[in-house]
Write a structure and sequence with these properties.
Elements (H helix, E strand, L loop, with lengths): L10 E4 L2 E5 L10 E4 L2 H9 L6 H22 L4 H13 L6 H15 L6 H27 L5 E6 L14 H10 L3 E7 L6 H12 L5 E3 L4 H6 L5 E4 L3 E3 L4 E4 L2 H11 L2 E5 L5 E2 L16 H4 E2 L2 E2 L12 E4 L6 E4 L2 E4 L3 H12 L1
Parallel strand pairs: 4-5, 4-7, 5-6, 7-10, 8-11, 10-15
Antiparallel strand pairs: 1-2, 2-3, 8-9, 9-14, 12-13, 15-16
Helix pairs in contact: 1-2, 1-3, 2-3, 2-4, 2-5, 3-4, 4-5, 5-6
The chain binds 5-S-methyl-1-O-phosphono-5-thio-D-ribulose.
5-S-methyl-1-O-phosphono-5-thio-D-ribulose binds next to α2 and β9.
């Protein structure tokens, strides 16, 4: 077996500074931003400098370190009160991915117990969130790849790789692992309109790591299945509700419907930080609406007929009954439902 390729990191904490690879500019430019306020981190999350559910949680955790450092310097006696608006600003940056609030809740839990200079303990906790995410991705890679024996083709959507996580990736981690183990012969990726995470980011990652990738327009996915070229659709998630409904990048639901129709298996790969037992079903998951200009334009240029309006939900909900397997670092759940997910999360917490 070859070692799965894994050369990319997009969120870096170095010498007390948060550095983010600016994903808006890929693949044309590899430019890094240095962020030194919570407001700048919140803006970077909202504006998609950093995106992908686990990655925005990790960036927000480092954002808490930056904010706490500033508030403690300004007011060592009452820094926790002064920090509250920073935490709220970070939490409000994007609504759908639960990993953002999950990471902030973890940092908050630690803040409650701290006396004196908070920076060393908070830096260590943010680093743990980051490292645990990479470890979870590696474990999910192994668990997910085990489902893929002698597979002719897989299709993925959006970007779920090193750019979207601490490193290695969720769905793309499974694909990296399966490719390294020689379990799959071809990788297809949807271009993922309107933001083109597939064409710009997934293709960049895979080409860079030496994994051949074939891009297709989102609208070609059902035909790809109909012509028998893929046996699995493998995607990530921004939030999995208690009943197993899955929020993910817009277009995922359509893939799941088409996959079931064609007898193609549907795998969701997400760490337990994405599972939200506090949200009963997909109907309760907030769906982010993004600016219409993302749909009306392409490559920074307005292309739609002047006067046309746009509807631009960034995510959709795939009902649990269309999911064949959810892979987490704590184990896999086939044909997910409320009881199986509750049991998985209880095992993970034990
Ligand atoms: O809008 P984005 O690019 O943040 O959306 C990302 C996705 O939908 C991913 O599939 C999801 O976050 C899982 S990534 C590990």
């Amino acid at each position: 077996m070859n070692t799965p390729p894994d050369s990319i990191r997009a969120v870096v904490w170095q010498e007390g500074e948060l550095r983010l690879l600016d994903q808006r500019r890929l693949p044309d430019a590899e430019s890094w931003l240095r962020l030194d306020t919570a407001a700048a981190v919140a803006d970077a999350i909202r504006d998609m400098v950093v995106r992908g559910a686990p990655a925005i949680g990790i960036a927000a955790a480092y954002g808490v370190v930056i904010a706490a450092r500033q508030r403690y310097r300004e007011n060592p006696a009452d820094w926790k009160t002064a920090l509250e608006p920073d935490l709220e600003q970070l939490a409000a940056a994007r609504p759908t991915a639960v990993n953002l609030c999950w990471a902030l809740a973890r940092m908050r839990g630690l803040i409650q117990c701290l006396d004196g200079d908070p920076v060393p303990a908070l830096t260590a906790e943010a680093g743990r969130i980051h490292e645990e995410d990479i470890a979870a991705n590696r474990r999910m890679g192994e668990l997910g790849a085990a489902f893929l024996d002698g597979v002719e083709g897989v299709l993925t959507h959006c970007n779920t790789g090193s750019l979207a996580t601490g490193g290695f990736g969720t769905a793309l981690g499974v694909i990296r692992q399966a490719w390294g183990e020689g379990r799959i012969r071809r990788v297809f990726a949807d271009e993922t309109r309107p933001w083109l995470q597939g064409a710009r980011l997934t293709a960049w990652e895979l080409v860079r790591d030496g994994i051949p990738v074939t891009l297709l327009a989102d609208a070609a996915a059902a035909h790809l299945m109909h012509t028998g070229q893929v046996q699995w659709v493998i995607v990530g998630s921004d939030r999995i509700a208690a009943n197993g409904d899955v929020a993910n990048k817009i277009g995922t639901y359509g893939l799941a419907v088409a996959a079931r129709h064609h007898g193609v298996k549907f795998m969701v790969v997400a760490p337990t930080s994405t599972v939200d037992l506090g949200t009963a079903s997909g109907a309760d998951i907030p769906i982010e609406q993004r600016p219409g200009e993302e749909v009306l334009g392409a490559g920074g240029r307005h292309i739609a007929a002047p006067g046309a309006a746009a509807w631009n939900p960034a995510f959709d909900i795939t009902p649990a009954e269309l999911v064949d397997v959810i892979v987490t670092e704590a184990g896999v759940v086939e044909r997910p439902d409320r009881d199986k997910l509750a049991a998985l999360m209880a095992r993970a917490a034990a």
